[in-house]
Specification:
The protein is α+β, with helices and mostly antiparallel strands and 215 residues long. It has one domain. The protein has 6 helices and 5 strands. The chain has a 5-stranded mixed beta sheet with strand order 1-2-3-4-5, with helices on both faces. The longest helix has 23 residues. The chain is globular.
Length: 215
């Protein structure tokens, strides 16, 4: 019987996308969101949500681009309303924002849907019946997804969470998604929680003498 692969999607991400890059993107998206909200303060409340949403797109694109550049992830040029993408190992990296819980919003972009087609090669890793067909792909796609509260009355200055997410090939579901605070722990080396017992029991002098006599 052929041996099933021991590979996993989070292991692929850790191997291809450095911890420093993930941390840089996390800081960049928080910073971009904060700049966007700061720039929108003072606008009329009637269109403030729309203004904040637009500014988040542009400001977070700028800081995401900077983080990719610092992380040597080959960012695409900033052009108008276009998506910013980078490259780390086999992964093309993108980003988008959603109101918390509305993960279907990722499908709204035709370009993102086209990008996700590459992930068909990853699907055997989460579909047991297809494991034997798995061959490590030359290309895959992952997104950094900033989740906002959906209300300017609740944490309007930044995302309530940022996830790293790998869509299926048609972006109707997610092969893997995890909050960055949890995902970053995957880079930590496994350590044993069992402490070696270095204590050697010592008998009292009287007990030791008895023991020698018994021998």
């Amino acid at each position: 019987m052929p041996q099933l692969p021991q590979e996993s999607i989070p292991a692929l991400l850790v191997r291809n996308v450095s911890r420093e890059l993930v941390m840089g993107v996390e800081d960049a998206l928080k910073s971009g969101a904060e700049r966007a909200y700061g720039a929108a303060i003072g606008m009329d409340e009637g269109h403030l949500p729309h203004v904040v949403g637009q500014l988040r797109h542009f400001k977070m694109n700028e800081t995401f681009h900077q983080a990719l550049a610092v992380g040597q992830a080959q960012p695409s040029p900033i052009r108008g309303n276009g998506l910013i993408m980078g490259r780390a190992g086999i992964f093309t990296l993108g980003r988008f924002n959603i109101p918390a819980g509305f993960w279907v919003n990722g499908r709204r972009s035709h370009i993102r849907q086209q990008m996700a087609l590459a992930n068909k090669a990853l699907e055997p890793l989460v579909q047991t019946a297809l494991f034997e067909q798995y061959v490590e792909p030359a290309a895959a796609v992952a997104f950094f997804v900033a989740c906002f509260s959906g209300s300017l009355k609740l944490q309007p200055e930044g995302p309530v969470a940022i996830h790293i997410a790998v869509p299926d090939h048609d972006m109707r579901g997610w092969l893997f998604r995890e909050c960055l605070s949890t995902f970053l722990q995957r880079y930590e080396p496994a350590t044993s929680t069992t402490q070696p017992d270095l204590v050697t029991p010592k008998l009292k002098q009287g007990q030791a003498a008895k023991g020698e006599g018994a021998a």
